[in-house]
Design a protein that fits this description.
The structure holds two protein chains of two kinds. Chain A has ten helices and 25 strands. Chain A is α+β, with helices and mostly antiparallel strands. Chain A has a nine-stranded mixed β-sheet with strand order 13-15-9-8-25-23-18-21-20, with helices on one face. In chain A, strands 2-1-5-4-3 form a five-stranded antiparallel β-sheet, with helices on both faces. A four-stranded antiparallel β-sheet of chain A has the order 16-17-22-19, with no helix packed on it. Among the domains of chain B are: 235 residues, Alpha Horseshoe (Leucine-rich Repeat Variant); 92 residues, no CATH class; 126 residues, TATA-Binding Protein (2-Layer Sandwich), CATH 3.30.310. Chain B has a five-stranded antiparallel β-sheet with strand order 1-5-4-3-2, with helices on both faces. The chains are: A alpha+beta, B mainly alpha. Chain A: One of its GO terms (cellular component) is clathrin adaptor complex.
Chain lengths: 470, 805
C-alpha cells in the first residue's frame, strides 16, 4: 500500500525513515533527495503554481500575502509517486505510494502512527522522537509490514515492544498545534509503558502505576457573526476524549444526559446533537435505552465519541465592531466584546485579531477592561497587518472595549474599508461547555473491592473559528 | 550527501550517558575515526556484562545508520551480536541487517543460519521476528532458504507467526514470481482465510489481492462463501483490516436483491465508527451494491447518499484538516452524482477562519452544488463576503462559485438576477482581480440568462478602462460584443483598442476584440465598418497567433467574397444562449464522472482524473465484478446475518462453521447443484432456421456490450466439429457454420426461444492447446423480443453445460 514512510523535523531533516517497496528504480538511489524536494514543496507551497499563465498573479499574490497557501495532504510529485503527509506538532509524517490507494486510509494511518508515537514517547516533539528512535522503529515494524498496516492499537502493541521510552521534559511545541484536541495538562504527558529518565534512572514506578483516567469533554465552537451581532452560522464540534492509565483494563461505563437526542429532526428540550460517532471499542447496546455506553478503554489517548451540533446555542462571547472615518486619512475602530457566560466562568488566553488595511501607517490602541480582567494588551503588528489584542483572563458577564485610532497613508475609500476585518477571536473556557452534554457518571463496570481509580473529568470549550464580520 | 545532517546532529539517542559533553564537532570530524571507535566498542561487546551498556553500543551504531552514515563496514562485528537473548538487541541487529543486506548480499547470507535457527525458537515473538527479517533481506538468492521456514510458519500455533508468514509470502512473491507460482501458495492462502485470527485473515486478503492483481479477476477471487464468511466477521477486524474486507464488497455481485440488502444492513454499524477510512469504504460498498439493487435506480442511490450524509459530515467536522481534505473531495463527488442531498448541510461547508487554504478552496467549490431556492440566498451572501478575503485565490474562487450558482439555475426565481447585480457591482468595484473574475463569470451568465444584459451593459465601458488583467479585459470585450445594442459607446470603446492594437500583447484580448468587433458590425454597420477594416488589416498581418490570424482571414474573405454578407452574419451571430438546466457543452463531464465513480475512495477522486493518467501501468488494477454466477441456491448454506449493534463473538453466528468450503475446492456438492433450477423453463424451438445473411445482420445489430460471455468446460477435447454439433442439435441448438483451425475449433450456433420467439446466437471457440482441461468460450447475443436477455443467455449456457460438461 505505501512504499515508504518518514518523519521530518520542522527544519526538514529526516528523523525516521523506512522504505518498504522500491517502486521506482531511479528513486531508490535518490530517495533522500525526494524527501527533501517534498519538504521544500510543502514549506513553500504555491497555490498559484498550477498553471504558468497565472505566474503573474502568483507574483502579485506573493507580494500581497507573503505566504502562498498550505500544501494539501496528498499530491503527486515529479517522480510519479503520490506523497501523503500530515503535520503534527510541527513534525511532518509522510508516506509515498505508486498505487491507487484509498487516500482516507493512508491519511488515517499516518495520524494513527503519530498518535501511537505520542502515546509511547509521552509527547510528540522532535527531541522525543530522536531520543526514542529505536522505540519508534520497533513500533513501526509492528505497525506496518511491507507497506500494509498491521497492529495499530496502543494496547495491542504493548506486548511487542521491549524498549523503554526515554522521557524528555515537556518543552514548548516546535510548531503550531494543528489539532487543538491534543492540548492537555502535563499530567497526561507520560508514556503508556514504564519509562526511564534521560539520565538512565527508572522513573518512579508508582507514578505510572497510579490508577487514573483523564476524561475531557472538548467542544470547539465555530461561530460567525454579522456586523450587527446577529449569528449567521454556528456549530459545535465536540468529542469526549480519554487517556487511561487504569491497571488491568477494567470495563468502564459512561452515562450521558438522559435527555440526549440524536438526529436533525429531533429537537426536544434536552441536549440535541445532529450526529454522533463512536470509537470501535464502544458497546452501544444500552445507548438507545439509557444513553449509557460501556467499553474497555484502550491504552493511551483515544476519542470515545465525536458529536456535532448545528443551530442556535448561547454563544459565550458577543462581538460588536464599529468603524468610523474621523478624518480623511484616519479611521477609528471600536470593538466591544461581551462575555455572556455565567460569571463564575472565564475565558482564558483570549486573543482578538483585527486585520487593518494595507496602507496603515500606525495605530494607537486604548483599552477599557472590566474588573477581574487579567493582563490585557493591544497593538498593531505591522508585519501581519493586523491589530492583536490579548487578554489573559476574560471574566464571565464582563465587557471589554478596544478603541484603535488607525492612520492611513492615503484617503480611505470603500475598497480600503473592505480590507478591515473579519475579526477573529481565540479563547478557551475551562470547566464550561456550551451544549450541556454531560458525563453523568463514569464507573468501573465490575464491582472490584478496593479498586478506586482517580477520575479526572474536564470540560473545555475552545474557539475553532470565532469570527465577526465588520 | 549527509553533510546537511551532520551539522545539526542530535545527541546520539540513548547514548546520553556515554557521550555527554561531547561537542558537536564530534560528527564533523573524520568518519573513519568514529567507525573505528564503534568497532572497538563492538569488540568489547562480547565481554560486556551490563545489558544496558550492551544495548547502548548497538544503539549507537543504529543511530549513525539512521543519520545516513555508512556503518556497513561493521557488518561482521554486528553479526556477532545477533546471538543474544535480549530482544531489544536482537531487534536492533535485525534492523541493521535488513538495512544493509541489499548492498552486502554475501555478508547477509552468512547470518541465514542464525535466522533460520531463530525461526524455530520457542518464543513466538522471536520466531516471528526472525521470519520477518529473513523475508525482509530482499535477496533473490535467499529464496531457497526462505521457503521452508515460511511453510512451517503458516501452520504455527501462534497467530503472530502466521500473520508474519503470510506477509512473508508476499515478499517471496516479489523476489521470485516464478517459483512462487510453483509453490502453490495461493491455495494455502485461500485455505487460511478460515483462520481464527482476524489479523491473519486480513493479511491473506492483502497478499491474495496483490499477487493476483494481474489475473483476469484483478485481485483475489471472491464468491458467495468467501463474502459470507468475511462479512459475518467484519466486527472482529480492526479499523484498517475492516477496510480490506470492505474493499472486496464493490467487486462482489450479490446473488439477489435480498442479499444486497442484507449486506447493507450488516455494514450499517460501520458508519457509526470514528474511522473515516472504514466509513468511506462502506460508502463505496453501498454505492456499488446499489447498482444491483432496484435495477440501480437513481432513487436508490439518493437514499444511500442520504443515509451516509450525516456520518460523513461528522467525520469532516471532527477530523484533522488532512482528513477533512480527503473527505471533502469525496463529498464533492457525491454531490455531483446526487445533487440536492447535501443541501441542508450547507452551513457545514462555510469556510472557517483557521482552515488551511486547500480546504477553503474546496469548500468554496462545493458550496454552489448545495444551492436550491431556499439555500441560495444564504450561500450567495456568504460567498459575497469571501470575495473580499485577503487571499486573492479564495476571492476569485468565490466569484466563480457565485457565477456557477447563477448558471446552474438551481437558485430559484430571481437568483440569477440578484447574483448578476452583485457581480456587476464587483466588476465595477475597481479591485482588479475581483473585477476581472466577475467579468469572466458574467460572460458565462449572459449565455444562460440573456435578460441580465440590461444590468451588465451600463458599467462596461468604464470597466474596460480599469480592468488591467488580461483575462478580465478579454471578458469585458466579449460582453461589449454581446450587449452591443445596449451600449451606445461600445464601438468607440473598441476603436480605442483597435488604434492601440500593437500595444496589446495578450492573444485572448486580440481574439475577443476581433470577435466582438465583427459582432458589433452586424448590429451597427455604419459605425463599425471602418474600424473593422482597420482591425482586419492588422490582425491578418499578425503572426503571433495562428488562431487569431486564421480567424481574421476567414472573416476577411467571407466579407470580401462579395457573397451575401448574411452568411457571415449567420456565422458570428449564432445564438450562444444555453437553456437553463442544460450544462455548457464544454463542461459536460458525465463520462469522466462515471469513470471516477468506478474508482471511488481512491486517489482518482483526489486528482479528479481516472487512474490511468497517474498510475504506472504495472500498478494499475482493473476492477471486475464477481462472481459471474451464483452456484448456490439462495439460502442453501447460509445468509448474511445483521448482527446486533455490539460485536458478537463468531461462535454465536451459526452459519459460519470452520468447514465452510470457501472456494469449493473439496469436491463441492454446491458446485454441482446449479443446473436444475435454471433450464427448466426454457424450451428451444425445434424448427428454428436462419440464413447466413440473417445471422450476420442480427449479430451485428446487437452491440458487443450486451453480449454475454461465459465458459463451458468440456468433458474432453472433441475430435471433430461434428461431435459438438450433434450433441447440441439434440437440444435444438443449431449450427450455422463451424470450422477447425490449427489451434482451435470455431462454431457459429443459433437457437430460438419457443416462448418469446427471441433468437439466440452463439459464437464459440474451443482452444486445442490444453487438452487436459478443454473449455469452450461462448459469446451469446440475443436478438428479437426478449425481456431479460442476460437471463436467457445464462439459461442457454446451463443447457450447453448439461450437454457438454
Amino acid at each position: 500500500m505505501i512504499s515508504n514512510f518518514f518523519v521530518l523535523s520542522p527544519r526538514g531533516d529526516t528523523i525516521l525513515a523506512k522504505q518498504y517497496r522500491v517502486d521506482n528504480l531511479k528513486q531508490s538511489a535518490h530517495e533522500r533527495s525526494h524527501v527533501e524536494a517534498l519538504f521544500r514543496k510543502i514549506k513553500f507551497w504555491d497555490d498559484f503554481a498550477t498553471s504558468e499563465a497565472e505566474e503573474a498573479q502568483a507574483e502579485k499574490a506573493r507580494q500581497d500575502n507573503g505566504k502562498m497557501g498550505d500544501a494539501p495532504p496528498v499530491f503527486l510529485m515529479p517522480d510519479g509517486l503520490t506523497y501523503f503527509h500530515v503535520k503534527r506538532n510541527g513534525l511532518i509524517f509522510g508516506a509515498s505510494t505508486a498505487r491507487n490507494v484509498s487516500p482516507n486510509t493512508v491519511v488515517e494511518l499516518l495520524s494513527t502512527i503519530a498518535r501511537i508515537f505520542k502515546d509511547y514517547c509521552g509527547l510528540l516533539s522532535e527531541e522525543a522522537l530522536r531520543k526514542n528512535f529505536i522505540l519508534c522503529y520497533e513500533l513501526l515494524d509492528e505497525m506496518i509490514d511491507f507497506g500494509y498496516p498491521q497492529v495499530t492499537r496502543t494496547e495491542n502493541l504493548k506486548s511487542f515492544v521491549y524498549n523503554e521510552p526515554i522521557v524528555v521534559d515537556h518543552v514548548a511545541n516546535t510548531g503550531t498545534m494543528i489539532n487543538p484536541k491534543t492540548a492537555s495538562a502535563n499530567a497526561v504527558h507520560k508514556p503508556v509503558i514504564s519509562s526511564v529518565h534521560e539520565n538512565g534512572r527508572k522513573s518512579g514506578l508508582n507514578n505510572n502505576q497510579k490508577n487514573e483516567i483523564f476524561v475531557d469533554i472538548l467542544e470547539r465552537l465555530n461561530v460567525l457573526f454579522s456586523n450587527n451581532g446577529y449569528v449567521l452560522n454556528s456549530t459545535i464540534d465536540g468529542c469526549i476524549q480519554m487517556k487511561s492509565y487504569l491497571a488491568g483494563n477494567p470495563e468502564l461505563r459512561v452515562a450521558l444526559n438522559e435527555d440526549l437526542s440524536i438526529g436533525k429532526d429531533s429537537r426536544y428540550n434536552g441536549v440535541a446533537v445532529d450526529d454522533m460517532n463512536f470509537n470501535d471499542c464502544v458497546n452501544l447496546s444500552e445507548f438507545d435505552s439509557s444513553r449509557t455506553i460501556s467499553f474497555i478503554p484502550p491504552d493511551g489517548e483515544f476519542i470515545v465519541l465525536n458529536y456535532r451540533i448545528t443551530g442556535e446555542f448561547n454563544t459565550p462571547f458577543r462581538i460588536f465592531p464599529s468603524i468610523e472615518e474621523t478624518e480623511p486619512n484616519k479611521i477609528e475602530i471600536v470593538v466591544l466584546i461581551r462575555a455572556e457566560m455565567p460569571n463564575n466562568h472565564f475565558g482564558a488566553n483570549v486573543s482578538v485579531e483585527i486585520p487593518v488595511p494595507h496602507c496603515t501607517t500606525s495605530a494607537s490602541c486604548s483599552l477599557v477592561s472590566a474588573p477581574g480582567t487579567g493582563h490585557a494588551h493591544a497593538e498593531l503588528v505591522a508585519t501581519e497587518g493586523k491589530i492583536v489584542w490579548t487578554m489573559k483572563k476574560f471574566p464571565g458577564g464582563g465587557e471589554q472595549t478596544m478603541r484603535a485610532k488607525v492612520s492611513l497613508s492615503k484617503p480611505c475609500t470603500t475598497a480600503i474599508r473592505r480590507e478591515i476585518g473579519p475579526i477573529n477571536m481565540c479563547f478557551e473556557i475551562p470547566m464550561y461547555n456550551v451544549s450541556n452534554l454531560q458525563v453523568r457518571y463514569l464507573r468501573v463496570a465490575e464491582n472490584m473491592v478496593g479498586y478506586t481509580p482517580y477520575r479526572w473529568v474536564r470540560y473545555v470549550t475552545q474557539s475553532s473559528s470565532y469570527v465577526c464580520r465588520v | 550527501m549527509s553533510t546537511p545532517y551532520a551539522g545539526q546532529a542530535p545527541p546520539p539517542p540513548g547514548g546520553a550517558t556515554a557521550t555527554a559533553g561531547v561537542p558537536d564537532s564530534y560528527f564533523t570530524e573524520s568518519r573513519k575515526g568514529e567507525i573505528n571507535e564503534l568497532r572497538t566498542l563492538l569488540r568489547a561487546f562480547a565481554t560486556e556484562r551490563d545489558p544496558q551498556r550492551k544495548r547502548d553500543i548497538i544503539k549507537k551504531v543504529i543511530a549513525y545508520m539512521t543519520l545516513g552514515i555508512d556503518v556497513s563496514r561493521l557488518f561482521s562485528e554486528m553479526m556477532m551480536a545477533i546471538e543474544t537473548r535480549d530482544l531489544v538487541i536482537k531487534k536492533m541487529v535485525y534492523l541493521y541487517l535488513t538495512n544493509y543486506a541489499r548492498t552486502h548480499p554475501d555478508l547477509a547470507q552468512m547470518c541465514t543460519n542464525t535466522l533460520q535457527k531463530d525461526c524455530g525458537n520457542e518464543d513466538p515473538m522471536v520466531r516471528g521476528l526472525a521470519l520477518r527479517a529473513l523475508c525482509g533481506l530482499n535477496l533473490p538468492q535467499m529464496v531457497e532458504y526462505i521457503s521452508e521456514p515460511l511453510r512451517r510458519a503458516l501452520t504455527d500455533g501462534h497467530a503472530y507467526v502466521r500473520k508474519t508468514g503470510v506477509m512473508g509470502i508476499l515478499k517471496l512473491y516479489h523476489l521470485d514470481p516464478d517459483g512462487f507460482h510453483e509453490a502453490n501458495f495461493v491455495d494455502i492462502l485461500y485455505d487460511m482465510l478460515r483462520d481464527p485470527d482476524a489479523s491473519v485473515i486480513t493479511n491473506c486478503i492483502i497478499v491474495l489481492n496483490e499477487v493476483m492483481q494481474k489475473s483476469p479477476n484483478g485481485g483475489m477471487a471472491i464468491n458467495r462463501a468467501i463474502m459470507l464468511h468475511l462479512l459475518n466477521r467484519i466486527h472482529e477486524f480492526n479499523e484498517f483490516a475492516k477496510v480490506q474486507v470492505l474493499e472486496l464488497v464493490p467487486r462482489y455481485i450479490p446473488a439477489n436483491e435480498d442479499e444486497g440488502f442484507q449486506i447493507m444492513n450488516l455494514l450499517d454499524p460501520v458508519l457509526r465508527t470514528s474511522s473515516s477510512g472504514a466509513v468511506v469504504a462502506t460508502v463505496r460498498a453501498f454505492l456499488s451494491l446499489s447498482d444491483t439493487l432496484d435495477d440501480g435506480s437513481e432513487a436508490m442511490k439518493r437514499q444511500i447518499v442520504a443515509r451516509v450524509k450525516a456520518p460523513l459530515v461528522t467525520q469532516i467536522s471532527s477530523g484533522s484538516s488532512e482528513i477533512m481534505y480527503t473527505l471533502l473531495k469525496h463529498v464533492d463527488t457525491l454531490t455531483t452524482i446526487c445533487p440536492g442531498v447535501f443541501d441542508d448541510e450547507y452551513r457545514q461547508f462555510y469556510v472557517r477562519y483557521n482552515e488551511p487554504t486547500h480546504v477553503k478552496y474546496l469548500k468554496v467549490a462545493i458550496l454552489p452544488r448545495m444551492a436550491n431556492p431556499d439555500t441560495a440566498p444564504d450561500i450567495v451572501s456568504e460567498l459575497a463576503e469571501m470575495v473580499h478575503d485577503r487571499n486573492t485565490k479564495l476571492s476569485r474562487a468565490a466569484v466563480v462559485s457565485m457565477g456557477r450558482i447563477a448558471c446552474s439555475g438551481n437558485g430559484g426565481a430571481g437568483a440569477a438576477e440578484s447574483i448578476a447585480r452583485r457581480l456587476v457591482e464587483l466588476m465595477d468595484s475597481g479591485t482588479d482581480h475581483i473585477a476581472s473574475e466577475a467579468a469572466t463569470a458574467l460572460t458565462l451568465m449572459v449565455r444562460k440568462e440573456p435578460s441580465i444584459k440590461t444590468l451588465v451593459a451600463p458599467p462596461l465601458v468604464r470597466s474596460l478602462k480599469y480592468i488591467a488583467e488580461s483575462s478580465g479585459k478579454a471578458s469585458t470585450i466579449i460582453l461589449l460584443g454581446e450587449c452591443g445594442e445596449l451600449v451606445t459607446e461600445a464601438p468607440y470603446a473598441l476603436e480605442k483598442l483597435i488604434d492601440t492594437y500593437d500595444d496589446i500583447h495578450d492573444v485572448n484580448i486580440k481574439i475577443a476584440l476581433l470577435t466582438s468587433t465583427v459582432r458589433l458590425f452586424f448590429m451597427r454597420p455604419p459605425e463599425v465598418q471602418r474600424m473593422l477594416g482597420r482591425l482586419l488589416a492588422v490582425a491578418t498581418d499578425d503572426v503571433s497567433s495562428q488562431d487569431l490570424h486564421d480567424r481574421a482571414l476567414m472573416y476577411y474573405r467571407m466579407l470580401q467574397s462579395g457573397a451575401d454578407p448574411h452568411t457571415l452574419e449567420r456565422v458570428v451571430r449564432t445564438s450562444t444562449v444555453v437553456a437553463q438546466g442544460v450544462s455548457f457543452a464544454e463542461e459536460d463531464d458525465s463520462e469522466l464522472r462515471k469513470e471516477l465513480m468506478e474508482e471511488f475512495n481512491t486517489l482518482s477522486i483526489i486528482y479528479g482524473k481516472p487512474s490511468v493518467n497517474f498510475i504506472a501501468p504495472e500498478f494499475q488494477v482493473k476492477y471486475k465484478k464477481m462472481p459471474d454466477e451464483h452456484p448456490l441456491a439462495p439460502g442453501e448454506t447460509g445468509s448474511f446475518v445483521a448482527p446486533p449493534v455490539a460485536p458478537v463473538p463468531a461462535a454465536s453466528i451459526p452459519v459460519v462453521s470452520n468447514d465452510v468450503d470457501l472456494l469449493g475446492f473439496g469436491d463441492a456438492e454446491p458446485m454441482a447443484a446449479p443446473a436444475p433450477m435454471a433450464s427448466n423453463n426454457l424450451t428451444l424451438s425445434a424448427s428454428a432456421s436462419m440464413t447466413g445473411g440473417e445471422y450476420q445482420s442480427q449479430w451485428g445489430s446487437v452491440s458487443d456490450a450486451d453480449a454475454t460471455v461465459s465458459d463451458v468446460p468440456l468433458r474432453a477435447l472433441p475430435s471433430s466439429t461434428d461431435e459438438i454439433e450433434n450433441v447440441l442439435a439434440a437440444v435444438n441448438i443449431m449450427t450455422m457454420a463451424s470450422g477447425e483451425l490449427p489451434n482451435e475449433f470455431k462454431f457459429f450456433l443459433y437457437a430460438k426461444d419457443s416462448s418469446s420467439g427471441a433468437t439466440i446466437m452463439i459464437q464459440t471457440n474451443v482452444d486445442k492447446s490444453s487438452p487436459s482441461d478443454a473449455c469452450m468460450i461462448a459469446t451469446i447475443k440475443i436478438g428479437g423480443p426478449c425481456l431479460d436477455p442476460t437471463g436467457l443467455a445464462e439459461q442457454v449456457i446451463q443447457i450447453m453445460r448439461m450437454q457438454l460438461s
